[in-house]
Specification:
With 266 residues, this protein is of the alpha/beta class. The chain folds into two domains: 210 residues, NAD(P)-binding Rossmann-like Domain (Rossmann fold), CATH 3.40.50.720; 39 residues, no CATH class. The protein contains eight helices and nine strands. The strands form two sheets. It has a seven-stranded parallel β-sheet with strand order 3-2-1-4-5-6-8, sandwiched between helices. Strands 7-9 form a two-stranded antiparallel ribbon. The longest helix is centred in the middle third of the chain and has 28 residues. The radius of gyration is 18 Å and the shape is globular.
Length: 266
């Protein structure tokens, strides 16, 4: 299936690891031109080198998205380099606190506000006008399954991810007339670098295949109930990201799509 992404310039904020990098690899294989926005430029260049081996044009722009102006400057630089922008994907937005509601103070909420919600806000403020002026395109943001279900000890994260889901709906309405589609993916637990600590504990406890050990750990230690019986893999999320960015999703906008294997933690 031709996704119609050949030569299309796409910015990925968080494109050097996890779901973001998996999406970048698929986009590179489709012939898209990529700008990876990352805090660690050296890591970004190493990842970009691997993507260039797939034949893609890939640039790296350094930015700490929690600092006003940095991600905006990075996206403006990418737009200048390519002469236009077609797409934006934002996969950055970490869990920073596992405290109870009473334990999470002002600092925890402010940190999540900057790292999760404002990362997407700043990226969209920089990219959407350029995408619209370039003739239209697509944006994919990342929320969480927990925007629709309770998740214990993730209070700031859940609130900010819910904000991203609401933001995507409103941006879809605002920019649809200008030819820009905005959709949102709501993942469950995914075996990215964020779960490396849990994976190490799982292997130490259970041995055997690391992926199977992590799945068991998440079920038994974290109380995760998943219809498919396991956590997701980055490439599975990437398939949906790339489809939503593609011309094949031309009549999809304003969607918030759970991609969580049928997850509930209670």
């Amino acid at each position: 299936m031709d996704l119609g992404l050949g030569g299309e310039p796409i910015v990925i904020v968080g494109g050097t690891q996890g779901m973001g990098y998996a999406a970048a690899a698929l986009l590179a294989a489709e012939g898209a031109a990529l700008a990876l926005v990352a805090r660690d430029v050296a890591r970004g260049e190493a990842k970009a080198k691997a993507l260039r081996e797939l034949g893609a044009e890939v640039i790296v722009r350094g930015a700490d998205a929690t600092r006003p102006g940095e991600v905006e400057d990075a996206i403006a630089s990418a737009a200048d380099h390519f002469g236009r922008l077609y797409g934006l994907a934002v996969t950055a937005g970490p869990v920073l606190s596992h405290g109870s509601f009473e334990e999470d103070g002002e600092a925890a909420w402010e940190a999540s506000f900057q790292a999760v919600l404002m990362t997407s806000v700043r990226a969209c403020q920089a990219a959407l006008p350029v995408i619209a002026a370039s003739g239209g395109g697509a944006v994919v943001l990342t929320a969480s399954y927990s925007t629709r279900a309770a998740a214990a000890h993730l209070y700031p994260y859940v609130a900010m991810k819910s904000g991203i889901a609401a933001l995507s709906k409103n941006l879809a309405m605002a920019y649809g007339p200008r030819g820009v589609r905005v959709n949102c993916v709501a993942p469950g637990a995914v075996a990215t670098e964020a779960l490396d600590g849990a994976a190490e504990q799982a292997v130490a406890a259970y041995g055997g295949d690391p992926g199977e050990a992590l799945d068991r750990w998440m079920r038994e230690q974290w109380g995760m109930k998943v219809a498919l019986g396991r956590v997701g893999r980055p490439h599975e999320l990437a398939d949906l990201f790339v489809f939503l960015l593609s011309k094949r999703a031309a009549y999809m906008t304003g969607a918030i799509i759970n991609q969580d294997g049928g997850t509930q933690f209670f």
